[in-house]
Design goal:
This is YCII-related domain-containing protein. The longest helix has 16 residues. This protein has two helices and six strands, in the order βαββββαβ. The chain has a single domain, classed as Alpha-Beta Plaits (2-Layer Sandwich), CATH 3.30.70. A hairpin with a 2-residue loop joins β3 and β4. The two termini are about 15 Å apart. Strands 2-5-1-6 form a four-stranded antiparallel β-sheet.
Length: about 110
């Protein structure tokens, strides 16, 4: 099962300890084959909205910056519970904030 794990921006600047702990976490997940992709995302982005035949393109940032996604990880695990445990480990490393886990369905 694949899960997309996303997290919002943080008010706290990362320090050397955070980089070291996150580096070890990423190395562990990569070596085990669980981590398929990870990365940071540009703030704001571009929103494309459709309404009938009308397509609207709007460049960010958007007013609800607290709902923005700052980074992601795509993982492959055996169960939702395993994905949740990875999310718990991630939050313990990075501290306060919010992450979302969503199952990725393939065709």
């Amino acid at each position: 099962m694949r899960y997309l794990m996303t997290t919002g921006p943080s008010d706290t600047a990362p320090d050397k300890k955070l980089f070291a702990e996150m580096g070890e976490f990423v190395r562990e997940l990569t070596a085990s084959g669980v981590l398929l992709a990870t990365g940071g995302l540009e703030p704001g982005g571009t929103r494309i909205t459709s309404n009938g035949a009308e397509i609207t393109v709007t460049d960010g940032p958007f007013t609800e910056a607290k709902e923005a996604i700052a980074s992601f990880a795509l993982v492959e695990v055996r169960s939702k519970e395993e994905a949740i445990e990875l999310g718990r480990r991630f939050r313990r490393i990075v501290g306060d904030g919010q992450s979302t886990i969503q199952q990725v369905f393939s065709a």
